[in-house]
Every structure is written in C-alpha cells, then in structure tokens.
Design goal:
The protein is of the alpha/beta class and 338 residues long. The protein is built from eleven helices and ten strands. α6 packs across α8. The radius of gyration is 20 Å and the shape is globular. Bound molecules: 5'-O-[(R)-(carboxyoxy)(hydroxy)phosphoryl]adenosine and zinc ion. Zinc ion binds next to α4.
Length: 338
C-alpha cells in the first residue's frame, strides 16, 4: 500500500511516499528554519505562508522521484494535530484536496504517534509492545506502546518540554534557533561536573517530570555571571545542563521498564538526536538487558516519512477521515484519531 504522507505542523513542509508502513520510497522536506532564525523562533504566520508555497511542489517532487503516478497512490495521510494551527491547516487542506481528487482514503495521523513510528522505518523488526521516550520541542512523555494504535502515557512533563528548555538556554547563550543541536555540540567539549544544576524530583506519579526549575536555574546562573562580570565556562554549562536533562529522563525510563517488564525501549522526537540522552539510554538499556531503538538523526526531527509509517497502521485499525477532518493545535496522543 503506497501512502502519500504530508507533514506541516511546525517549520518543515514535508511530503513522503511510504510503502506498507516500513519502506520509505521518498522523503522530501523543505525546511523553513533559516527564515525563522532571525526572529529566534517560529513565526506562525510566516510558517503557514511558506507551507502553502512549498506543499504542492513537494508532492510533485515526491511522485517524480519515485517514478510513481497518481494512480499508484493508495491513500493520503496527514498530520492533523498537534501543532501551529495555521500550519497544520495547510497540510490538512492539501491532503483533503489530494484524497478527493485521487478518490482515495484520507488518514489523519497524530504528530507524536508519527514520531514514534519513525522507529518502524529505522527498525523493520520492531513491533509493539515497547516503551517509547518521546522528547520533542513541545512534548516530553514516556509512553507504553501496547499496539500500533493503542498507547498509554506512563509519565509526562508537568511544565516545559525537554526541547523547549534546551532551546531557551541555548538562546540565552546566543546560539541560533533552534539551539538544541548547537548546545549538544558545545556540551561535547565540556565538563559535566562544572556546574551543579537541579534534577526533577519524583512527584505524585514518579514517572512525571519537570524541566522549568532546571531551566530557571540555568538562566539564573547565566544572568548572575553576566551581572558580576564572571566568565562562564560555556561548554561546561552545556554539558552540565545536558547531564541534568538526561538524569531527569533516563532513570524514569528505567523505572517504566521495571514497572511494565518491557525490555524494548525506543526514543523519538527532535531531542532524541541528543548525543548524551542517547548515550545514557544505551547504558541504561545494557544494564537492564533491554534493546534500545534510537532512529538515525534524519528521522528524529519532523519529517513526513514517519507520518506515512504510522498512517499504515491507523488505516489497518480503521482510522480514516472524511472531508470534515479538522486540524487541532492540541490533542492527546490517546484521543480518537478522527
Ligand atoms: O520533534 P521536533 O523536530 O519538533 C517538534 O515536534 O517539536 O523537535 C524539535 C526540537 C527542538 O527543540 C530542537 O532544539 C531539538 O528538537 N533538538 C535537540 C537536538 N536536535 C534537535 N535537542 C537537543 N539535542 C539535540 N541534538
Ligand atoms: Zn515533531
């Protein structure tokens, strides 16, 4: 089954064609990151306009690259939530028009389910059940993936997402948006014991977590150094901050593995590209006797291939939409897909 998949929830316009949920025939992306960089973050209005400009050409490009014709497309899938509402709407309207014109089913896909499904592309042998640490710009969750479309949230951030805190600290350090990757690169040269930063303490649900205290502590440290004219060890701060984020995430994943008995651990989302989080997770998995699934960096950030992968399983589960499909800025990963 060839699925034409569309992703436009934030600052990447992407169209992919994915066969049977696992085989990526093409994955076309037009990134807007450079455009938003001068503003230090995504400007929603600009994002929506750029999606409109790019989306049709990307779909044409996808067909050309694969040598497929329109009649070879069996369904159209799209990210319908969550994201910047104007941006998501562009993808949803394009996908509706394409499905209508082709006379093929329309499959709505939750963006975070898509991130998880990046693992199905990277690891053809991976099947649920497994645990997934989802760490993106807007979400941080530990999820038990019981089946392709049946999930349970075991723990979640109570305030900021991990990606948000990386980006905020990076921004204050003068790194270009989105700063997570630059902070990660800088951290590699630093001493992670240089600064003492707080770790999120267990709350009512021990698998829940918080990043705002850590973020504020890092920002206070930077501002205080500025005020007293003290020179900061930037690599050391980046390393200490990355260690604190990793120490918040990874022990909770280990605890989730103990609670569920699950020994397959996946990681997903833009922050899954973080070298220290990957290293800590690998060490934890080895200790547990678990297998770690960490997709290549190209599949961690936003892309349409992951949407096409999840769409296949949504279709099998009967989750298709009609022309009344709407876009949503927020929606739980557990919500009914339509
Ligand atoms: O999943 P994603 O592409 O978009 C959302 O769905 O939010 O995630 C983007 C986030 C940004 O916060 C970005 O700074 C972060 O992923 N990121 C990283 C790294 N690469 C990307 N954060 C930490 N370390 C990295 N290497
Ligand atoms: Zn994303």
């Amino acid at each position: 089954m060839n699925i034409l998949a569309v992703e436009s929830s934030c600052d990447e316009t992407a169209v992919a064609i994915v066969r049977d949920g696992r085989e990526v025939l093409c994955d076309c992306i037009a990134s807007q990151v450079e455009l938003h960089r001068i503003y230090g973050g995504v400007v929603p209005e600009i994002a929506s306009r750029k999606h409109i400009e790019a989306i049709y050409g990307l779909a044409e490009q996808a067909l050309q690259k694969t040598g497929l014709s329109r009649k070879d497309i069996d369904a159209v899938a799209v990210t319908y939530a969550p994201g910047l509402i104007g941006a998501v709407l562009v993808g949803v309207n394009f996908a509706k028009a394409a499905a209508l014109a082709l006379g093929k089913p329309l499959i709505p896909v939750h963006h975070i389910r898509g991130h998880i499904a990046a693992n199905y592309i990277a690891y053809p042998e991976l099947e649920p059940p497994f645990l997934c640490l989802v760490v993106s710009g807007g979400h941080t969750m530990i999820i038990e993936v019981k089946d392709y479309t049946n999930m349970q949230i075991l723990g979640t951030t109570l305030d900021d997402a991990a990606g948000e805190s990386f980006d905020k600290v990076a921004r204050v350090l003068g790194m270009p948006y989105p700063g997570g990757a630059a902070l990660d690169a800088m951290a590699k040269q630093g001493d992670d014991t240089k600064y003492t930063l707080p770790r999120s303490k267990p709350g009512v649900n021990p698998l829940d977590m918080s990043f705002s205290g850590l973020k504020t502590a890092a920002l206070n440290l930077i501002h205080h150094a500025e005020q007293v004219g003290e020179e900061l060890d930037i690599p050391g701060l980046c390393a200490s901050f990355s260690a604190a984020v990793s120490d918040t995430l990874v022990p909770r994943v280990v605890q989730a593995a103990h609670i569920t008995g699950c020994r397959k651990i996946a990681v997903a989302g833009g922050v899954a590209a973080n070298s220290r989080i990957r290293r800590y997770l690998q060490a934890a998995a080895d200790k547990l006797g678990a297998t770690l699934y960490a997709p290549p960096l190209s599949l961690c950030g936003d892309n349409a291939a992951m949407i096409g992968a999840q769409a296949y399983y949504e279709f099998i589960a009967g989750n298709v939409a009609d022309m009344g499909l709407n876009a949503y800025a927020t929606k739980s990963i557990l919500g009914e897909t339509v």
